[in-house]
Amino acid sequence: MHEDPLRVHGGLVGRRQFFRVGITGLLVISLPHRALARPSLDEAIRSFTGGANVLDGRVRLDLPPLVENGNAVGIAVVAESPMTEDDHVRRIAVFNEKNPEANVAVFHLGPRSGRATVSTRIRLATSQVVVAVAEMSDGSFWSSRASAIVTLAACIEDLS
Amino acid sequence: MARALVNVPKAAKQGEVVEIKAMIAHPMETGYRVSPNGSNIPRDIIRRFACTYSGEEVFSADLFPAVSANPFIAFTLIATTSGTIEFTWTDDAGTAQTASAMITVS
């Protein structure tokens, strides 16, 4: 019995097709992962401000420059505002650069707050930049950024 | 039920700015961690914190998984009238836990 050349040819094409399908499949599998990837720091801030211009100043973000334990990092945000009915801070939002999610927290304040100051404890997955954005009652946005070096990361298991 | 700790000054002068501290025992599970058997640990966080002063909401916060376990929040309020300051923490399942403190304003 002689070998059927067509069959051999067909088998070769089949293998190529198999590789092609495999590579396409890998691309398809990797696509939703890319779609699920977290928004960048700037994108997150833009979705908070609704595209408004963010100015530097009037806000101070206190973040320790060297963090030993990323699971609990004390931060404080202070905004310069008289906190009156006419001129107060409406919201203060905190964003991070490299955690699995860009948002950290959004605080809603008002004239009854007296002072525009909040503090809390956050998680940092790695050394990164943290940004605080304050929305004033006149609709303007002010921001402050600080970076921290993290020696023991939070949620170390799931970050490459 | 989780344990909540709040720190409100017992007495204050009218118009004085008082510092309020609130903390609740909660794991704030991010949903990004993997258990030893390889399955994902489901997300379980406090999503919202709110503070009312004599029934009126004066401060609130939306929290995300990047807030540490046992979330601690400190903020300020103007002491207006004697009354109750109430705190509410709401988690992913929608269950709310409350705590309250009295303030006497002179």
From TrEMBL, chain A:
It comes from the Bacteria. It holds the Pfam family SoxY. Gene3D superfamilies: SoxY domain. Residues 48-155 form the Ig-like SoxY domain. This is Sulfur oxidation protein SoxY. The lineage of its organism: Bacteria, Pseudomonadati, Pseudomonadota, Alphaproteobacteria, Hyphomicrobiales.
UniProtKB/TrEMBL annotation, chain B:
Residues 9-101 form the Sulphur oxidation protein SoxZ domain. SUPFAM superfamilies: E set domains. Coiled coil: none annotated. InterPro entries: Ig-like_fold, Ig_E-set, SoxZ, SoxZ_dom. This is Thiosulfate oxidation carrier complex protein SoxZ. The lineage of its organism: Bacteria, Pseudomonadati, Pseudomonadota, Alphaproteobacteria, Hyphomicrobiales. The gene is soxZ.
